[in-house]
Amino acid sequence: MKNESKISKVLSILLSVVLVVSSFYLLYQVIRLNVLPSKFLFPLTIGVVVLDAIFILLLIYFSKNVVSKIVCIALTLFICVASCMGGYYISKTQNVLSSITNVAKHAKNTVSVVVKESSSIKNKSQLNGVSVGSLRLNEQGSKKALKELSSEGIVLNQTEYDSMTTLLEAFYNGEVDSIIINESSRSQILDMEAYSNFDSNTRVVYQTSYKVKNNDSATSVSDITSKPFNVLISGSDTRGGFDENGRSDVIMIATVNPKTHTILLTSVPRDFYVTTACDAGDGCMQGALDKITHTGIHGTNTTKRTVEQLLGIEINYTFKVGFDTVTELVDVLGGVDVYVEPGYAVHTSYLNVNEGINHLNAEQALAYARERYSYTEGDRQRTKNQQQVLMGIVKEATKPSVITNYAAIMDTMANTFSTTMSNEEITDLIKYQLNNNPTWKMEQYMVDGTGDTLMCAELGDAASVMVPDQSTVKMAKDKINAVLAGKSSEDVK
């Protein structure tokens, strides 16, 4: 009996040590995350210490009979497991915040040598002596691919073209046996009706990449919990990875006023015809006319500078969303719900949505976010669809049930989002929300224009665009400034 009592006491002491370690691991991760206001952190700390003390006393001194001992051990083990899991989840959250706020100094551009699917050329060794077409605009990428192949004794006969249209025509007419494309241009090609099957009737036989400097940086406000600020939300359509530049398919300016608890979302259609602006080193054609979506090819900073010039505002932060990686998040969340208004049902070979609530999987959500040809409003409706998908993700991600798959969701988010907002600024906002629990007023506006077919600099050819209605551009600027000044955008008519 004495031996049994001794073993029981040793076990109780060991379990008490595990309890203290797991509890303080949880507290450490909470403090490290730095999102809890003092009014919550202090009671939590006291609560953990008191709870640990109670169970230690019960384990060592007051649980004498077998039943009480078992119950006490079971409850202690439960607290230990819960504390470890809580600490692990908080640690995951911290890692995600560090990841999304650690904006890469360079962005990757992927370059491919493409042949027809019917071509006898199956690999790079068969490219020697073959004719290849390239875009003058993509000179850096073409030089990189040709230089690497040349170092392996593979020399191609290069012909340069001034536009994507003439390059593709030469390729399909047999003037050249292969072409060099920047993978960021692939979406542009697929958007051209004549080449919508480009993916299926071509194949890549050689691929390389090069890095360009990322000039995107924040113009921080002094106190993000009291000073109003603008955030550019840019949804990239890159298909080669989140670190790769791609067209800005979603462009929204979130104007946030923490004092009035107002958020204004101003949307700019991807086909908006604008004058491109960028910083030295971005590689854009400064002052050229183009669709605003094409600015993303030169990085988020080019999109930001162009939006600033368009609306006459200062953008403080950027928030980049990789739309292809968003689908991974949709998968992890188990799908998202979108509401299709009457008359907006779509039934095609790649998208099937009915009027009312539709639960979309990852593939369907991406198709819904990209669809425009089925709507008379075209790009306007696509912008609304993209907003719905993003809001659907937010709704699913904030449900209590996400706890069951929290780690996977956090891992996916790290590869989906990137922001120039600092880790400290994000945690300050979370702390502000928890401390004050404000109810935010959401307001929306979209600039508008008229459809036309005009020359686009990045394509070197004419394409469908939306010519800005300057009255809506002025209205957007006035609404943004109203929210920044502490007023409601709805007061601006």
Would you identify the CATH architecture of the largest domain?
3-Layer(aba) Sandwich
The spatial strand order of the largest sheet comes to 16-11-6-7-8-17
Runs in which pLDDT lies below 50 for 5 or more consecutive residues are: none
How does the major sheet shape up? Answer: 6 strands, mixed
Radius of gyration: 28 Å
Determine and state the CATH class of the largest domain: Alpha Beta
Percent range of helical residues: 40-55%
Rounded mean pLDDT is 88
> Total number of β-strand segments?
19
Taken from the alpha-carbon principal axes, the silhouette is globular
Number of separate helices:
13
As a percent range, the share of strand residues is 15-25%
State the fourth-level CATH superfamily of the largest domain.
LCP protein
> Structurally, how many domains make up the residues?
3
Q: Ends: how far apart?
A: 86 Å
Which topology of the largest domain does CATH recognise?
Answer: Aminopeptidase
